[in-house]
Amino acid sequence: MAPVLKTAEELQIMREAGRIVALAHEEVRRAIKPGITTKALDEIATTILRDHQAEPAFLGYAPGQHPPFPATITASINRELVHGIPSTARFLQEGDIIGIDVACFYQGYVGDAAFTHPVGEISRSAKRLLTATAAALEAAIDASVLGNRISDVAKATAKCAGRLGYSVAREYTGHGVGRDMHEEPQVPNWWHSKNSRYQWQDYELQEGMTYAIEPMLIAGRPDLVELDDGWTVVTKDGSLTAHFEHTVAITAGKPLILTLP
Prior knowledge:
4 helices, Creatine Amidinohydrolase, single chain, 261 residues, five-stranded antiparallel β-sheet
C-alpha cells in the first residue's frame, strides 16, 4: 500500500498531536532524575496526554505475536534499544541514559516522537552517543526533501552514524504515520544491498507524505535480542544504545517537523 498523502487540514491536526507529544516529553524530561521509577514517568506522560484530549497510542497495542503493551510510554535504559516497559520496580540510577518514546491519537491522527536523556551525570562515551544520535536524526530530516527518496533518508542516517563510529539498528525502522501509528513508508536507518533479505519499498518523497524518523544508534555490535516480556529489545553485547525520533511532513520546501512544542 502506498503512503497516504495528507491535506493541509490533516497536517494541522497532526501538528497538534505532535505538539501534545512534545509537551509530554518536556514534563517527563523535567522529572528524569536518580531514584524515580519508570512507572512514575509513564504516569506523568499519561496525565499530559489526557489533559490535552489525546489518547495513548501504545497502550494496548498488540501487533503480531506481541502481548498488548501495558503503558503509555516506552522507557528503555542503557542497553535497551526500544520498547522498554515502565515498572514500579525500575528505579533510575545516576549515570543511566533512558530512551522515552511517546505516541498519541488526537482527533484521529497520530503524533510520535522519542528522545534519550541522561540521568544525572553520565560518562563521556554516553554523551558522545547521545550527541551522535541527535545528529543522525538531524541529517535524516535534512534529507527529507522533494527530489529525494526514502533510501536517501536512510543513507543519511547510516552515513552520519558510521562517520561518528556507531552501528545502527537494522531490524527496527521508522515508519509512516497518520490515522494509523504504522503506515507506509518504512524508514530504515540504513539501506539494503540488492541481494539483502531486507527489501523495503523505495518511495520517491512527495508533498504531504508524513513519517517518523527514528535513528537508533548502538555503541557496539548491532546484534539484538527481544526479552521474554515480548517487547524489550536489548543489545546482545550489552553496549549502550540511544534513540531519537521526530515525525515530519514533506513540503514544497524544508520538511515540517510535526513533533516540536
